[in-house]
Design a protein that fits this description.
There is one protein chain. With 193 residues, this protein is mainly beta. It has one domain. It is 7% helix and 53% strand. Strands 1, 2, 3, 4, 5, 6, 7, 8, 9 and 10 form a 10-stranded antiparallel sheet that branches. A hairpin with a 4-residue loop joins β7 and β8. The protein is elongated and about 65 Å long.
């Protein structure tokens, strides 16, 4: 994702400051005939202990008493709406999908980013989603050794071994494409208790 200083500073600070305090993290695998999706989610909650609107700093306290003081970037809208006692909730979701595109399908490589912030006057909140997709060409395959040779868009190739639990390996053919799609989403919201 492209950096939004205050959003990433807040999320990273919360995760590092409170990681040992019961962060809910879950990894989920969804096996599909033509691919796999891996998803991880983490949510952090902290209470606003102190706020200095002139210096644009906020001190947050985690569930086990850990504190961190953050400086809000000038681009952060609605900072003046944050009050002592408010709760900050940061949710991070990362999802990676790997699937096969059959020969002849047009490869898609690129990045899409969406950001939505709270309207002026509301409590600060933002949702940012970034999706990056890369299409790799299958230029060689060894079914007996379960190895596949992939070619990146820049022309580099790499041979990788495919785990025996990956279903549908024998359906992959030379000329197919392996599509890797990574999606990251961050939601940060300030809530009045």
């Amino acid at each position: 994702m492209k950096k939004r200083h205050w959003l990433w500073l807040l999320t990273v600070a919360l995760i590092f400051a409170f990681v040992q305090t019961g962060m809910a993290a879950e990894a989920k695998k969804d096996a599909q005939a033509d691919g796999i999706v891996l998803t991880e989610t983490a949510q952090i909650k902290a209470k606003v202990e102190d706020i200095d609107t002139a210096k644009r700093t906020v001190t947050l306290k985690g569930p086990r008493g850990n504190t961190v003081t953050l400086k809000a970037d000038p681009s952060m809208e609605n900072f003046d709406q944050i009050k002592k006692g408010d709760q900050i909730v940061a949710t991070y979701i990362e999802s990676m999908a790997v699937f096969v595109a059959k020969a002849g399908e047009k490869p898609v490589t690129g990045e899409v980013e969406v950001v939505k912030a709270a309207p002026k006057g509301d409590k600060p909140s933002i949702i940012a989603v970034d999706t990056v997709q890369e299409t790799l060409a299958v230029v060689g395959i060894d079914y007996k050794q379960r190895k596949i040779t992939l070619k990146w868009p820049d022309g580099k190739t790499k041979t990788v071994k495919i785990h025996k639990n990956v279903k549908g390996f024998k359906k992959i053919k030379k000329g197919d494409s392996i599509v890797v799609r990574l999606t990251e989403a961050v939601a940060v919201a300030v809530k009045t208790p």
